[in-house]
Amino acid sequence: MRSRLGLGALSLLLSAFYAADVSAEYGVNMTRGVTDISHSVYDLHMTIFWICVAIGVVVFGVMFYSIFKHRKSKGAVASNFHDNTTVEILWTIVPAIILIVMAIPATTVLIDMYDTSDADVDIKITGYQWKWRYEYLGQDVNFFSSLSTPKDEIYNAAQKNENYLLEVDNALVVPINKKIRFLVTANDVIHSWWVPDFAVKRDAIPGFINESWTRINEPGIYRGQCTELCGKDHGFMPVVVRAVEQAEYDDWIIQKQEQAKAAAALAALTFTLEEQMQRGEEVYLKTCAACHQPNGAGIPPAFPALKGSDIALNDIQKHIEVVVDGIAGSAMQAYGDQLSDVDIAAVVTYERNAWGNDTGENISAADVVDYRNK
Amino acid sequence: MSAVLDNPIHDEHEHHGPPKGIARWLFTTNHKDIGSMYLWFSFAMFLIGGCMALTIRAELFQPGLQLVEPEFFNQMTTMHGLIMVFGAVMPAFVGLANWLIPMMVGAPDMALPRMNNWSFWILPFAFGLLLSTLFMEGGGPNFGWTFYAPLSTTYAPDTVTYFIFGVHMMGISSIMGAINVVATILNMRAPGMTLMKMPLFVWTWLITAFLLIAVMPVLAGVVTMMLMDVHFGTSFFDAAGGGDPVLFQHVFWFFGHPEVYIMILPAFGVVSQIIPTFSRKPLFGYHSMVYAVASIAILSFIVWAHHMFTVGMPLFGELFFMYATMLIAVPTGVKVFNWVTTMFRGSLTFEAPMLFSIAFVILFTIGGFSGLMLAIAPSDFQYHDTYFVVAHFHYVLVPGAIFGIFAAVYYWLPKWCGNMYSETLAKWHFWMSFVGMNLAFFPMHFLGLAGMPRRIPDYALQFADFNSISSVGAFTFGATQLLFLYLVIQAIRSGKPATDQVWEGAEGLEWTIPSPAPYHTFSTPPEIK
Ligand SMILES: [Cu+2]
Fold first, then answer.
1. Minimum mean pLDDT among A124-133, B5-14, B382-391: which range?
2. pLDDT of residue A99
3. Using CA atoms, how far apart are residues B469 and A19, in angstroms rounded to an integer?
4. CA A169 to centroid of ligand 1, rounded, Å
5. DSSP class of residue B401?
6. How far is the centre of ligand 1, averaged over its atoms, from the C-alpha of B183 (Å)?
């Protein structure tokens, strides 16, 4: 940036030039990314940028020439011209031509971006307040991905780590060199799924499915964020994608499928109150604490307290119902298809026994199944 | 000329001076009083909205959450946007219209003076209502100034209802103001003042007024649909009930895109008055200026969906809106070229109005460049909803609309109050604003390109440096505006008396009347050469 600021706007423009050159190191320019599309987008971006710079140099050049040469203090005498049809037609037509030249490559890239046919992998992405769900269609793999940065770092009680706010508990794992199609939607409000390195940004809109695709050229970890304001924790729902070789990807899929089976097997077991409380606390902190807060006090009136709440102390059926089916027309989602029966039982048990809600009741997965079967 | 005017003015002055006290302001139908009230109101809103911006910048000074919680942060971004758009910029231009249009076309007052009073007096109530929501249970609107459904309907705080009523009131005020402008310009011009002789400020306002009349009802419609969704069980924007959240965005931006031109066209007009004066040379290409403004206004109706390139429109839709948007660069370019050519081979001096106007041309053009980049749909996928967009629209609104307003105030203040402002202080105001504003908003381009989304209360570590710089710039810019307040008051109270002509190169009817402008002017139409 240098200290050329005094020279005013021209120096700003210059600093933009300068910035563009050192883009990679300092994070001042768009990433080139790791897909063919992201490369084309970067090229478009740079082309239009340089066109603007060129026009800027001419226009501001003339202007600064007048500012320095045609000052009254230097004895400049004003001439009186105020029309020139030729010039006026020229500077209408020339920009129009430049624009047409620009529109051609832009159109080609856009058509490419819209071609979602013949995908090798289909992944459904669903935005929730405030996490992402990834479902691998036809693979039986399906999980949530939410921010894993500890609260202490956010509230400046601990040193912030390198990937502060750009890290998640479960990253999306995809194979490289394969066409991956994303089917993007949302469960509550509008979100937007963005990974700059892929040049993929798609709004996740409740009730609609948007399509997009990518083919990643290099293995690596790619990070992005939700880019549509989606409520309180909009700034805290990152996207992390791990792109790996096909073989590693296949192993990962098998491992995920086995984990799912193991989790399902838990439903047959019974747990003590302590075991339930422990599991419940984990689930609660991960899934519910963003709104109801770790201490159960909530943020009234938007998010009610569970500590001492009528539902958490009394009607068990109602409590299970609220968690499984949510509360229509509110931020309280239906967790029935997000959490397993075991986890729902655990979190309900936790809420009925934590923070002085000492009901002593232990809800089992079977109770949840009973409710679902009703 | 003065011989023609003196008599009628004096008569009027003796018989109907302004009443004294608060009643003067409550019941006034005088365009000058109403203009002043609009301007003061808008400045108050500018300071309030500015404090909100500074709250945002203070929180973003460093990574981590320090000062405010995310819920409150979202209320600040939302209210800052709403207050600045509807409370600061729009009323300031209506204030200028009130003061200037009658004086520029040689009319004694606005065509509909009583309605004029009412359009102003609605505003304090609308904004009182809106601001009061911040103190209500559940907090104020927190869904962004674009209030996308369903975040602003199903998931909104209860105060959304007050927000909706507030927007309705602002809308009524704007529509009445616009009707008044159109009626004045079309019916009250002095004989001989043909349309193509009107000053450009009048032209840009005429076109702006038509835009307002066309789109404010659309805004009213969209908030009414929200009201129905929230309270009466309809599902316009709720997919679960057969509605469509994207419909909201289409309707909103059908209003919203012309709205951004509503905020900039009058500034084009202001600058087109000022640059010729201080270049001592007529405006280059008057006719093409008028046609350019008209084409921008017409095009502004067919580009709305460039705000929505990522919602998943069909390919043809994307292409259409991309091409249409790029097209707007042509008439906008014509305007910039004309301003620069007006300066070329002039005899330039650099008083405060000219400094702000030159900065306007340069910085607005930079905002125009980033706008052109945003128009390229495939690149927009990377820019959309990042700080690049924040940088873009602040470049067109701060050095665009707001510098335009400052320029206008410095230019016409001597005519309004009869005294000159302090040129030294005004230069300080200019340079501090210029540096502060660029420091605040230029780094935002980098932040956006490097991947920082907008409307987030906390960010990843690689964004830290530019955010700190930006915050320093924002506080510089904000503090400088207190200097502006001081120097305006100083000019009104104790500035050196101004001449009637005020500026050496100024042309137009407003400079033919005495400074300060008498309470009633042009009771008898002036002669137009
Ligand atoms: Cu989100």
1. B5-14
2. 93
3. 15
4. 16
5. I
6. 47
CB proximity list for B458: less than 8 A, separation 6 or greater: A154, A165, A235, A236, B63, B64, B65, B70
Closest C-alpha to B121, from B222, B54, B22 = B22
- For B72-206, where are the E strands, in sequence order? none
Of residues B88, B84, B103, the one with CA closest to residue B38: B88
Is residue B6 pLDDT above 60, yes or no?
no
Mutate to test the interface with B, among A104, A203, A233, A332 (most CBs of B within 10 A): A203
- The ipTM estimated for the assembled molecules is 0.90
- B195 Cβ contact list (under 8 Å, min separation 6): B203
Please name the fold of domain A36-113. Answer: Helix Hairpins (1.10.287)
The b/e string for B408-446 (b: 16+ C-beta within 10 A; e otherwise) is bbbbbbbbbbbbbbbeebbebbbebbbbbbbbbbbbbbb
Cα B227 to chain centroid distance, Å, stands at 27
Given this model, what pLDDT does residue A273 score? 86
Domain that includes residue B321, residue range: 264-451+465-517
Chain A, nearest residue to B389 by Cα: A227
Identify whether B335 is a catalytic site residue: yes
State the average pLDDT over residues B81-85. Answer: 96
Check residue B258 and give its pLDDT: 95
Chain mean pLDDT for chain B: 93
Report the candidate in B44, B79, B42 with the shortest Cα–Cα distance to residue B162. B79
Distances (CA, A) of A145 to A278, A330, B515: 21, 22, 68
CATH number at B285 reads 1.20.210.10
Nearest CA in chain A to B371: A52
Per-position DSSP letters for B184-212, written without gaps between them:
HHHH-PPTT--GGGS-HHHHHHHHHHHHH
Count the domains in chain B.
1
Q: Tell me which CATH code domain A121-263 carries.
A: 2.60.40.420
Inside any domain, residue B397: yes
Q: Residues B407-428: what's their mean pLDDT?
A: 96
User: CB neighbours (10 Å) of residue A27?
Assistant: 18
pLDDT score recorded for residue B22: 85
Strands A191-195 and A220-226: antiparallel
C-alpha–C-alpha distance, residues A324 and A337, integer Å: 8
Question: Whose CA is closest to B89, among B49, B42, B126?
Answer: B42
Q: Crossing angle, helix B265-279 and helix B352-375, to 10 degrees?
A: 140
Q: Is B259 a catalytic site residue?
A: yes
pLDDT at A336: 84
pLDDT at residue A12, rounded to an integer: 47
B295 classed as catalytic: no
Return the CATH architecture of domain A267-373.
Answer: Orthogonal Bundle (1.10)
pLDDT at position B240 is 87
Which one of A229, A230, A232, A303 makes the best mutation probe of the B interface by having the most chain B beta carbons within 10 Å?
A: A229
Strands (DSSP E) found in A196-287: 200-204, 210-214, 220-226, 238-244
Show residues of chain B in contact with A84, CB under 8 Å.
284-285
Residue in B286, B382, B462 closest to A41 by CB: B382
Which parts of chain A sit beneath pLDDT 70?
A: 1-26
pLDDT, tens digit, 9 for 90 and up, residues B117-137: 999 999 999 999 999 999 998
Q: What are the domain boundaries of chain A?
A: 36-113, 121-263, 267-373
